[in-house]
Design a protein that fits this description.
heterodimer, A: mainly alpha, 2 domains, 23 helices, about 75% helix, globular, disordered C terminus, B: alpha/beta, 6-stranded mixed sheet, 5-stranded mixed sheet, 37 helices, about 10% strand, DabA (chain B), ubiquinone (chain B), Probable inorganic carbon transporter subunit DabA (chain B), zinc ion binding (chain B)
């Protein structure tokens, strides 16, 4: 096998993680953390250098901007989590376990986002899930953690099954397991797919949705907040979005697969809207953040389905940074809340309802001119929307002199967004214009969200709002059903509640020892 | 049952669950406050039954402390005499005699317990327990003989011979099994089966209560909250499909059929369960004790009807009970139907379980009579003989009657009585060491300084002790200990804040409000500040709103998400530069404005007041101000020889990302920073009119004495001065000396603290240590920014001379008191009834958090999840965590906080102290029921006397 130094560096990244995982357990927690931090730092440095490296020649690795960005992102999140955990877990028994599984998880992720071989991808993907499972079960005696991890375990196997089946189908079609080989033929626009390819695309979309915790397989993501905070940060910032990576990776195929896109649009679209509303009803910070991730992942998948790969990539990266920060900073909520308590949002201003009406009209206006929404003109719409939301939320601050400020803030945000969008669109797989039906469906979803928001802000006491609250607060009972079905199919072995007799036995065992 | 009696039942049932203060002002308190009328040991037994929580360390840990020397052998003997069993007696064995005390001592040290019959084979075959000595590695020839001798002396057969064994007669099946004391039917079902009834009830109740008590986490608030919890729940839950999912039939109709009034609902539920009225109290007590955290919060809410949130969204214990019992009735019924097809009532379940129990008893007693006695008596005698190093001959000479006597001695001292003996021994070891140090130090007592440059008054907090020690070492300084609110209870509002906070111990409620106002002549600064803070507020509030807005959240992530990477890098990789940068940025937005504290009574409308209205009248009259100053100075015994400065040093902590931040702040200021109280005291004491009034009252303060307010940041060990704008020019130079001294003291203290802070590098210079603790204050990842009051073990009321220059390890509250100026004990009485009480709360909070970190404490910070802005849960859903987190009391594998009761040392006449105790019920409770230990120190002879729970005194031998 021949290669250049890019190949070597790409090979080194997971090896560095593996090496630090192997050594960390042997040296005691302090030195272990130094090793883990060193390994993660080195991996990040390699990933950053790789962003500017020439193409690899061996054929084992992929080296598009997509891979580089995601690899750098994961290495970055990994380093932050390692540094954070060094102090956070000080004195905890089982730090060596934590270090080992953290590094193993990262090694697997590094393989997934760089490999060009479908089988390697599949195996590493399973590896992520298995080592993550150990992190989620960091306190194995916690029953709720065990149940959540059990569900996650089953869903992960299901996703791998989907992916493996898709791999088989694509292998039958193309006779190769190299990903670039599989995707080579789809570059031309207007390609039509055969049944096998359509099926493979559907399976890939399903795998991505399961990985991204879309309805009704979202429950585990909410419940695994039982795990230590840095594990949640890693999961929400570096692991969960790999479903999005999968779709971006397979973009050349997915672009042509209308059924798969349709499936994504329906499931992820509904998840996105409903989870966003459910997020609003949550009262504990970590659960709130987890629901928000479900919604955000939904948006990312919808963006993929619409062919807006640049947006999806931007969303993937931005969400990772945002969510990692939010989770790690979750302990500051008491203080943040204290500050907020002093300035509750004002009741919706009188002109909020007409404002919403205008927004709706504007949206339909956008529809009337085909292609307007995909074009950069949508930024103007965004700007108007942003200003509207800002003002309607902050009636209390909107005193003399602030109106301009609000507009200025909205403007600055829009410009920042436009620049980022430009950058990421250039780096991601080429965008494809969404079809009319897809656009209409998204409009409908958006209107639903807008309507619910209007209900909440302007008619919070109406019977409709109450009914909506009840169902949203219960998470639409989706998870209860899916748990029930999961447990019926594959019952969980939960940590046993120790009976008094067992305790007696164990105590006397200890005493006599 | 009348509604009045029902109310009494509910009140009695709620009493053992202590109130839980919402997290924003963490208040240390005894989680067993409701049981403090009981003796210490009894209270913890009661709580162990009710909450399932441990009030002592496990015996293995006490024993380990003994083997490592932390608990002295002498203390063990002493403790055994004081609170061990009363058996006396002696038997003789060939050449030696054996006393009850000796046997029980060994029992305490080694735990000579019966062997569960099921383990006998394992002990014999795996552990080779009958071939090699206890804990020994090699086989010894003597041991089998010893075993045979033990069996012989009791007239037992060796079970290994397989001789036929008499099967014990079965216990007569009782007609009815009775619900254990303080257990609910749901508990009982869970204990006898595996239905998870309690956890199902918990899940439903937590779901509704957390939504109701949320104070701003959710963007979409639970509707109908104004009507109160019970009504809101009734309205919403009837459409809740969870009931159906759990399997409850006709859920909607059942909820609709409930009476509109919570108490009637409770009555109906109890009747439905058919619990006899005599047992309602204990049944309800257990129902409330199942989620003590949430119940505690609800209790706090119902005791504070004026809290703005409680006013709008009322909830109380009855409403909670009504909901909880509704689920109990439904789910117990369901489980009983599913398991046995019977009704879910107490009589039906009792009858069914009685049958099950009598069937099971046979299996439990399957071991024959001989085997059972071998494992119980033979095994214990065998163990004891090994520990006594008896030979087989000696043991063989033991008569059966004597053998039974020996076993009776062991029976008289069951393992559950060991813990309190160990605790006493643990405390005694500490007491000996501390009193020994003080006695030794007495010889080296220094005379008072000529005229000190400064006197500094610190909070009594245990963290002040080392700081005072280092500060005194840097120059001609005297220090005093005084409650950190400096005796001035105020409802204080900071400049540009919209809310006032009571700054005083929670025992008191402030009568007057104070206000921080901008100093005159800085219109420019004010204008700049106002504009900057407007931007900042806009930003902060917008960000918060956007995060919680379903539409904007999507935009927000896309637009701002990437910028969070900067914060991630800064906070984890470049901690201190990032913190400095953030501070600078904040200052750019909010230019500092010089402020002063307004203490004078003022009728004029307050300037610059925003937010909630100030309800109390503002400020104090001249008379009152003089009272505060005089009272403070006389209490700590500072009445003459004033220095050029009297520094009033409050304290607070600075930490990041820490839900328990308030637990590190000043307990005497209601869990907040103490600088406003220091500023208020100084503002009063510096006023010429107050000085004149003081002089009239015979307390002359020299004109060149300046009262200087300051604050000690206990995390970073820095000191900030306040109101320097008022400082006369004549004192500027001295201020520099003071500044340098505090810096030095802070550095030395930092170095001392770093020795025990996990993760602190070894071998540092004082300056490096200071930098290290500074970086901990801005570290968002650390779970132990500082140790707080961890380690607290003693409360010393007396002159500084008693401890000056003595390193007592930051474990003592120090309250200054000079008995020579207080012959009647009036001042001492105030100290013992206020600061000492707070000391007991703090001590018990730490004690319980250390003995049971998951029940009394709040578990590991690592899995904490802030809920509703009021508290934390473990993971996605659990009881509200009360108490202190594991990381506050525990250093990895070992206890950093040694759980022991507070040792009060008072330098005063025993008679005076006894008279004060006799006057106050709360002190009698503390000292006669064993919640505190008390020793008085005779100022003249240096002798210590210990106060016993029966109000007698006993000399302490050192």
């Amino acid at each position: 096998m021949t290669g250049n130094w890019t190949d070597l560096a790409l090979l080194l990244v997971p090896l560095v993680y593996l090496l630090s995982a192997g050594l960390a357990g042997l040296t005691g927690p302090r030195a272990g953390w130094r090793l883990v931090q060193g390994g993660s730092g080195l991996a990040l440095a390699l990933a950053l250098v790789l962003d500017f490296a020439p193409a690899p020649v061996s054929g084992w690795f992929l080296h598009d901007p997509l891979n580089s960005i995601v690899l750098s992102l994961v290495a970055f999140v990994g380093l932050v989590v390692a540094r954070f955990s060094t102090h956070y877990l000080e004195g905890d028994t089982g730090q060596d376990r934590f270090q080992r599984w953290l590094q193993l998880t990262l090694a697997c992720v590094a393989v997934v986002v760089t490999t060009n071989h479908f089988l390697v991808l599949l195996l590493a993907w399973a590896g992520i899930s298995l080592s993550m499972h150990r992190l989620l079960m960091f306190y194995p005696e916690r029953k709720r953690a065990a149940l959540a991890a059990h569900k996650k375990f089953l869903f992960a196997r299901l996703a791998e099954l989907c992916l493996a089946a898709a791999g088989c189908l694509l292998y039958l079609e193309h006779g190769t397991l190299y990903i670039d080989g599989m995707l080579a033929g789809y570059g031309a626009p207007g390609t039509t797919l055969g049944l096998r390819e359509q099926l493979a695309a559907l399976l890939i979309a399903s795998a991505a949705m399961i990985k991204c915790a879309q309805f009704p397989m979202h429950g585990w993501l909410i419940q695994v907040v039982e795990a230590p905070t840095p594990v949640s940060a890693l999961l929400h910032a570096g692991i969960i979005n790999l479903g999005g990576y999968l779709l971006l990776l397979m973009a050349p195929l997915m672009v042509h697969a209308a059924p798969a896109k349709g499936l994504l649009l329906v499931v992820a679209g509904l998840t996105c809207v409903i989870a966003a509303l459910i997020t609003m009803t949550r009262v504990s910070i970590k659960v709130l953040l987890a629901w928000s991730t479900v919604a955000q992942m939904g948006l990312m998948l919808v963006e993929c389905a619409l062919g807006q790969y640049g947006l999806a990539l931007l969303h993937l990266v931005a969400h990772s940074c945002y969510k990692a920060y939010c989770f790690l900073a979750a302990g500051g909520q008491v203080e943040a809340y204290l500050r907020q308590r002093l300035a509750p949002p004002a009741p919706a201003p009188r002109w909020a309802a007409p404002g919403f009406a205008v927004a709706v009209l504007a949206l339909f206006g956008g529809l009337a001119v085909p292609g307007l929404l995909a074009a950069d003109a949508s930024l103007w719409l965004l700007f108007a929307l942003m200003a509207l939301v800002l003002v309607s939320e902050r009636g209390s601050v909107l005193v003399r002199g602030s109106a301009l400020r609000v507009l200025a803030v909205a403007g600055a945000l829009t410009i920042a967004y436009a620049l980022q969008k430009l950058l990421f669109t250039a780096l991601a797989p080429a965008a494809a214009a969404p079809g009319l039906a897809a656009t209409f469906w998204c409009m409908a979803l958006f209107l639903g969200l807008l309507g619910a928001y209007w209900l909440l802000r302007c008619r919070p006491d109406s019977p409709l709002a109450r009914r909506l609250y009840r169902n949203l607060y219960a998470g639409l009972y989706l998870d209860e059903w899916s748990t029930r079905i999961t447990l019926a199919i594959w019952p969980a072995k939960l940590p046993l509640r120790a009976t008094s007799k067992q305790v007696l036995t164990i105590k006397s065992l200890e005493a006599t020892r | 049952m009348t509604s009045a009696t029902l109310k009494q039942h509910i009140e009695a049932a709620a009493a053992p669950v202590s109130q839980f203060w919402p997290m924003k002002g963490f208040v240390s308190h005894n989680p067993l406050q409701g049981l403090e009328h009981l003796p210490f040991d009894e209270a913890f037994r009661e709580a162990a039954n009710l909450f399932g929580a441990a009030g002592y360390l496990p015996l293995t840990e006490y024993r380990a402390l003994h083997w490592t020397g932390r608990i002295d052998a002498a203390s063990v003997q002493q403790a055994l005499r004081r609170c061990g069993p009363a058996d006396k007696g002696c038997i003789s064995l060939l050449s030696r005699s054996l006393s009850a005390g000796q046997v029980q001592h060994l029992h305490l040290l080694h735990g000579i317990d019966a062997l569960p019959p099921a383990l006998f084979d394992w002990q014999v075959t795996q552990q080779k327990a009958l071939e090699r000595p206890r804990g020994g590695a090699s086989v010894s020839a003597e041991i089998p003989a010893l075993w045979q001798a033990a069996l012989a002396s009791l007239g037992l057969d060796d079970p290994r011979l397989g001789l036929p064994d008499a099967v014990p007669s079965r216990a007569q099946p009782s007609a009815e099994a009775d619900l254990p004391f303080q257990r609910c039917l749901s508990d009982w079902l869970d204990e006898t089966g595996d239905d998870g009834v309690v956890s199902a009830i918990d899940a439903q109740v937590i779901k509704w209560v957390s939504a109701f008590v949320d104070e701003g986490m959710a963007g979409w608030v639970m509707p109908s909250k104004q009507a109160g919890f019970f009504s809101a729940w009734r309205e919403l839950s009837q459409y809740d499909s969870s009931g159906r999912l759990l399997g409850i039939s006709a859920f909607k109709e059942k909820v609709r059929a409930l009476p509109g009034d919570a108490e009637t609902c409770i009555q109906r539920c109890m009747e439905a369960l058919q619990v006899p009225e005599a047992r309602w109290s204990d049944y309800l007590a257990r129902t409330l004790a199942q989620l003590p955290g949430w119940t505690g919060l609800i209790r706090w809410r119902s005791e504070n009807p004026d809290d703005p949130i409680q006013k709008h969204n009322p909830i109380d214990v009855s409403q909670y009970l009504a909901v909880r019992l509704f689920y109990e009735v439904q789910l117990v019924e369901l489980a009983a139907q599913r398991r046995w097809g019977i009704a879910g009532t107490l009589p039906a379940i009792s009858r069914r379980l009685a049958r099950a129990e009598s069937a099971g008893q046979g299996a439990l007693l399957a071991a024959g009579a001989n085997a059972g006695r071998v494992c119980r008596d033979g095994w214990r005698l065998f163990q004891l003989a090994q520990l006594l190093k008896l030979s087989a001959d000696e043991l063989g000479s033991l008569r059966q009657q004597d053998a039974n006597t020996v076993l009776a001695w062991l029976d008289a001292f069951p393992p559950e009585d060991h813990q309190r003996v160990w605790l006493e021994a643990y405390e005694d070891s500490f007491r000996r060491r501390l009193l020994g140090k003080i006695a030794e130090h007495r010889a080296a007592e220094e005379s008072r300084l000529e005229r000190p440059l400064a006197q500094a008054a610190f909070c009594i907090d245990v963290r002040s002790e080392p700081f005072r020690r280092h500060f005194e070492a840097t120059g001609p300084f005297e220090t005093f200990g005084y409650a950190g609110f400096f005796g001035i209870p105020i409802d204080h509002r900071s400049f540009d804040s919209g809310e006032s906070f009571p700054l005083c111990p929670v025992l008191l409620s402030p009568a007057k409000a104070t206000l921080e106002v901008p100093r005159g002549g800085q219109d420019d600064a004010l204008a700049r500040y106002a504009s900057g803070s407007r931007w900042q507020q806009l930003g902060e509030h917008l960000f918060h709103d956007l995060k919680h807005n379903p539409i904007a959240a999507f935009l927000l992530v896309d637009v701002l998400g990437l910028f969070f990477s900067v914060a991630l890098i800064g906070k984890t990789l470049l901690r201190r530069p990032y913190a400095a940068l953030a501070r600078a940025a904040r200052r750019l937005f909010r230019r500092p404005v010089a402020t002063a504290l307004e203490v004078d009574a003022g009728e004029a409308p307050a300037p610059y007041v925003t937010g909630l209205p100030i309800e109390l009248s503002r400020g104090f009259s001249l008379e009152q101000q003089a009272d505060f100053v005089e009272g403070g100075l006389r209490t700590i015994g500072l009445v003459e020889n004033f220095g050029r400065f009297v520094v009033l040093c409050g304290h607070g902590s600075s930490t990041d990302n820490n839900p328990y931040a308030a637990a590190l702040d000043c307990g005497a200021c209601g869990g907040r920073h103490g600088d406003p109280n220091a500023r208020a005291f100084a503002a009063m004491a510096n006023k010429p009119a107050v000085r004149a009034e003081l002089a009239r009252r015979g307390l002359a303060v020299p004109d060149d004495t300046w009262f200087l307010p300051a604050k000690h940041d206990t995390t970073a060990d820095t000191v900030a001065f306040y109101d320097l704008a008022d400082l006369p020019g004549s004192h500027q130079q001295d201020l520099e000396i003071l500044r340098r001294s505090f810096l030095q003291a802070g550095q030395k203290l930092a170095l001392e603290r770093c020795a025990s802070l996990p993760g602190a590098p070894a071998r540092m210079s004082p300056a490096q240590a200071h930098a290290h603790v500074g970086s901990r204050a801005v570290d968002w990842a650390t779970t132990r920014p500082e140790w707080g009051l961890s380690g607290n073990a003693a409360f010393i009321i007396g002159r500084r001379a008693v401890t000056r220059g003595l390193d007592i390890g930051g474990r003592c509250f120090l309250h200054s008191y000079d008995a020579s100026t207080d012959p009647e004990g009036a001042i001492l009485e105030k100290i013992m009834t206020a600061p000492l009480v707070v000391g007991e709360w703090i001590n018990m909070q730490y004690y319980t958090s250390a003995t049971d970190p998951w029940k009394y404490g709040s578990g590991s910070k690592v899995i904490h999840n802030v809920v509703g802005g009021i508290g934390v849960m473990y993971g996605s859903q659990s009881d509200l965590a009360t108490g202190l987190p594991l990381q506050t009391v525990n250093d990895g594998a070992s206890h950093y906080h040694e759980p022991m009761r507070l040792l009060t040392i008072i330098e005063a006449e025993a008679l005076v102290v006894a008279a004060i105790i006799a006057r106050h019920a709360i002190l009698q409770q503390f000292f006669h029921k064993g919640w505190l230990n008390l020793v008085v120190l005779d100022r003249h002879t240096g002798a210590f006397q210990r106060y016993n729970t029966d109000a007698s005194w006993e000399a302490v031998a050192l």
